[in-house]
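Batch manifest, entry 17 of 40.
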Amino acid sequence: MKLWYRFSFLIITLLFMFVALIMAIYSFGLANFTSLLNFIESIYNNWQAGILFTAAFIIGAWLIYPFFSFRDKLGSTIIKKTELGEVDITLRALENLVQGITKQQEQIAEIETSLKSDEEGLKIFLKGKVHQGTIIPELSRELQDIVKSYIEKTTGVNVVEVKVLIEDIYEHETARVE
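Output type: structure tokens
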């Protein structure tokens, strides 16, 4: 479906570019005005042209619909499907849960999270700074275990992976006494 959508988007974009080019040619006076009038007159009361333009309108509306879809803007993942319907949770809500559980770790100075949901499940990416003296392999493994088990337990979402990137070591500024 994504390939068909991209192809349709390409065709509509090329059509729009063509119409814009024709209008530019007429605007600069490089073409005869009567030829434009002849074209408009030739499509008047022409059912084939009407079907073509109606189809172009419907395809254009179909292409623009995702830009106004509220659910897609929020980004969500399905928790479960029942006979009564779906239960979803937004990625923002999941991100807040991840932020909350990671900030409880004393060794973490700063943490940023990003999430990606696909057919396999949820992928969580953590990037942060740790305090000096932290044993990074142990902390990374703890973070992965804690985040994965917490999210799966509280939401029921399948966590496929938790990636941890330690981007810097946070050094405490201490006052020296001389």
